[in-house]
């Protein structure tokens, strides 16, 4: 007997039970799928103004408007009128007033066009038509506005990628320079302040995790600050490239439609008027190489910041830093009330890894486009904001984590005082130097110090007794006897001054 069509599909014991209650995907306003637009939105929201779909469409609208103005200002198209200042202000006001209503309107248009750039074109055409009813809007000769007659100039001689590549260059530039770079510079300055404040705070180094030649806390933090600063400067030097040259980069339609124009000059002047660097030689797409370079630089910054996060986590675990619970703003552990977890550094570590994975993918894939054009970059570039968002979130967590740290100088001193074996290095090197200078009895210094120090607990008295037994010249012996792990920091204090110099 056949089961009725209305019967539910058979289930097995392993089938999951459907989630009970309201369908959360149907709520209004919509519930965010990802954490950057949900849990962490307060930190990453500034990127929405530049790298969201709405921001991309606003940039497209800007490019279309400026292209229309550029063509008419420079009299590129025979018969096209020159616009009045009020007409140009009206057009630019279409971009400046782009907000929720326009976002919704574009969505409605795109539902019909099934093409995002075409939807922007139609939106602008509708605003040209509406200009007929705009008060106080006159043409350059004082007559009625000419804007309603300029519909055919909108998107003229452009392929979608002419608009898209310029729009992405503008939005990525603004996101990096206005949002990401200020945060990155802030992290560098936080580290520099910490380094300068503790330039003279001695600390036991731990190469391979083992007690090693002492340094200062400030010098070690300065290393990270300088490394990050160098990457910041690389990002600051980014060239944001753009092109406007048609369907295969040949200006084919341009020279047929308007053969008298110097199209390379027109293209260059337009791209540069947007504050971008003109790329003269492309296929249908601008090759995205500048994007790959930028994302690799940001990823390298991320990886150094990841090193910072793991080092700070380790210093906290060693007791070199204590965390202020109020500054962390959270419960340390749900079951162990004594704990203050280094959550800021752990959060940063994870988000840096997510950011790098996306940035690496962007850098690796955007440089390839089959023959003259494929659309793999279209969906890929929509994740630029996600990649930078995870980096921005990590930087925010690092800064918050650093702000909640206090240095435990007594713990640092305790570690140093328990590691007198580290003076085996300067003693044997002093013996070598004394031997070169003519002192006798300095043979096999490394082996002699190794016998005393390797795998053994060395006391201050034991180290000083050894120094006295070596027959060193008086001045060398006195210098070594005055040494302790806490004072054996070389030039660490002075090295912090390099934070104020130029980076090679």
UniProtKB/TrEMBL annotation:
Keywords: Lyase, Purine biosynthesis. Pathway: Purine metabolism; IMP biosynthesis via de novo pathway; 5-amino-1-(5-phospho-D-ribosyl)imidazole-4-carboxamide from 5-amino-1-(5-phospho-D-ribosyl)imidazole-4-carboxylate: step 2/2; Purine metabolism; AMP biosynthesis via de novo pathway; AMP from IMP: step 2/2. Residues 1-16 have a biased composition (Low complexity). SUPFAM superfamilies: L-aspartase-like (SSF48557). Its EC number is 4.3.2.2. It is an enzyme of class 4 (lyase). Residues 38-348 form the Fumarate lyase N-terminal domain. This is Adenylosuccinate lyase.
């Amino acid at each position: 007997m056949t089961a009725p069509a209305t019967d539910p599909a058979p289930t097995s014991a392993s089938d999951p039970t459907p989630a009970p209650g309201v369908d959360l995907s149907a709520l209004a306003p919509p519930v965010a799928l990802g954490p950057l637009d949900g849990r962490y939105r307060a930190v990453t929201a500034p990127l929405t103004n530049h790298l969201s779909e709405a921001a991309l469409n606003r940039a497209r609208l800007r490019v279309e408007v400026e292209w229309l103005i550029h063509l008419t200002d420079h009299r590129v198209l025979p018969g096209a009128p020159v616009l009045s200042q009020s007409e140009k202000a009206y057009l630019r006001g279409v971009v400046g007033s782009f907000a929720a209503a326009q976002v919704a309107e574009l969505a409605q248009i795109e539902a019909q066009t099934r093409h995002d750039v075409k939807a922007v074109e139609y939106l602008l055409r509708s605003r040209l038509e509406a200009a007929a009813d705009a008060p106080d809007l006159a043409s350059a000769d004082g007559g009625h506005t000419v804007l309603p007659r300029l519909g055919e100039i909108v998107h003229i001689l452009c392929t979608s990628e002419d608009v898209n590549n310029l729009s992405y260059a503008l939005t990525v530039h603004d996101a990096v320079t206005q949002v990401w770079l200020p945060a990155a510079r802030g992290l560098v300055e936080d580290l520099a302040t910490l380094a300068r404040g503790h330039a003279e705070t001695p600390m036991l180094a731990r190469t391979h995790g083992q007690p090693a030649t002492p340094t200062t806390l400030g010098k070690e933090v300065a290393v990270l600050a300088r490394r990050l600063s160098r990457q910041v400067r690389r990002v600051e030097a980014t060239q944001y490239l753009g092109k406007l040259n048609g369907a295969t980069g040949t200006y084919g339609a341009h020279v047929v439609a308007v053969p008298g124009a110097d199209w390379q000059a027109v293209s260059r002047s337009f791209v540069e008027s947007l504050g971008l660097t003109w790329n003269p030689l492309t296929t249908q797409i601008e090759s995205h190489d500048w994007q790959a370079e930028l994302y690799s630089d940001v990823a390298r910054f991320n990886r150094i910041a990841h090193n910072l996060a793991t080092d700070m986590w380790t210093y906290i675990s060693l007791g070199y830093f204590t965390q202020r619970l109020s500054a962390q703003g959270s419960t340390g552990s749900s079951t162990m009330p004594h704990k203050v977890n280094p959550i800021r550094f752990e959060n940063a570590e994870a988000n840096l890894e997510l950011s790098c994975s996306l940035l690496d993918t962007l850098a690796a894939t955007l440089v390839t486009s089959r023959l003259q054009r494929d659309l793999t970059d279209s969906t890929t570039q929509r994740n630029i904001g996600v990649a930078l968002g995870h980096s921005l979130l990590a930087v925010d967590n690092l800064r918050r984590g650093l702000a909640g740290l206090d240095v435990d100088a007594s713990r640092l001193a305790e570690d140093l005082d328990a590691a007198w074996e580290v003076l085996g290095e300067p003693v044997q090197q002093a013996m070598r130097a004394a031997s070169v200078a003519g002192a006798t009895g300095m043979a096999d210094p490394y082996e002699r110090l190794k016998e005393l120090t390797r795998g053994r607990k060395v006391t201050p008295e034991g180290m000083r007794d050894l120094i006295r037994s070596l027959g060193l010249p008086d001045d060398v012996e006195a210098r070594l006897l005055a040494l302790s792990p806490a004072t054996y920091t070389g030039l660490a204090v002075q090295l912090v001054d390099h934070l104020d110099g130029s980076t090679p």
